[in-house]
Amino acid sequence: MAAKKTVVRTLVEEGFAKVSEVCRAVSLSRSSFYAVCQRSSESLHLERKTVDLSKDHSRYGYRRITALLRREGHQINEKRVQAVRRKYGLQVRKKQRRTRRIRENDSKRLSANHRNHVWSWDFVHDQTDWGTNFRMLSVIDEHTRECHSLRPRQSYRAEDVIEVLEELIDEHGAPRFIRSDNGPEFIAYRIQDWLKERGIKSHYIKPGSPWEQCYIESFHDKLRDEFLNREIFHSLAEAKILLEGWRKEYNEIRIHSSLGYQTPSEFATFGKPPFRATPSIPACQLHDDRKSVIADDAPNSLLKNDLI
Fold first, then answer.
1. Can you tell me the distance from the alpha carbon of 98 to that of 222, in angstroms, rounded to the nearest whole number?
2. How far apart are CA 69 and CA 99, in angstroms?
3. How many C-beta neighbours within 10 Å does residue 59 have?
4. Alpha carbon of 245 to those of 120, 141, 145, 229, 249: distances in Å?
5. Taking the alpha carbons of 179, 184, 185, 190 in that order, is the dihedral positive or negative?
6. DSSP state, 187?
7. In this structure, what are the phi and psi dihedrals at residue 135, rounded to the nearest 5 degrees?
8. Would you say 262 and 277 are in contact if contact means Cβ atoms under 8 Å apart?
9. What is the mean pLDDT of each run of 10 residues along the chain (308 residues)?
């Protein structure tokens, strides 16, 4: 309907034909062409806001866009956001690969139960516009999903990895376990001796089993899809600045459905919500008003058990 109106309006303004002739040619009634939109200004504003957010975050799906709108105080349904994105051609199309486990007991792996329990680290490769290859050492906390490091260098030796880890431990504290693949930088004797001195246990995945390092593999997929595939780096210094900016956005702005639509920083500060967090309530407000929410909606027995 909107496309037909645009065609009629364009042809009439350029003087090619009359309104009745063009409407007849495109099978559009004149009453529909002259009809004025009856939508409220608030509805139009919400639609424009949805389109702007979808364009700013082109790799976000409609559920994440809905969560962002609700965090700003808008009351909107997921299906409406999906319809608006479909109308403007803003859907995210991505084919997911499925990984089948070889044995049932492969799923029983070390799981992070609290902050600094399990860190995971790995390398990502990219190149500048001039063809210079570089590597990025990424380190994440598997419990909070925080990205502690995303530092590009042309090459990494064992000494360089230790230097980065020392800085991260001074800033965030030491992890109990650190998970990695069997790359030469991670199995080097220098790193193993350093980890023993620090009291950090290394947890290596089985060769050819990347699904055992699922958190950092998922993080690399988001990094590649939402940032690396969209940016052109003219130098290593520029890549360092842009990567650090994206890392802060990932930790402090980007919300995660697996964390109850909280950012990793919010989840690290507040922990799990007192009940299942809905995207309509910001996580910080949810935790600030914890007692009042439970007192209004929960029975007295639940209130007593929760506040003890």
1. 16
2. 33
3. 14
4. 21, 18, 17, 16, 6
5. positive
6. S
7. -120, 150
8. yes
9. 83 88 88 78 86 86 89 88 87 60 46 88 89 91 92 88 91 91 83 90 83 87 90 90 93 88 90 55 51 43 38
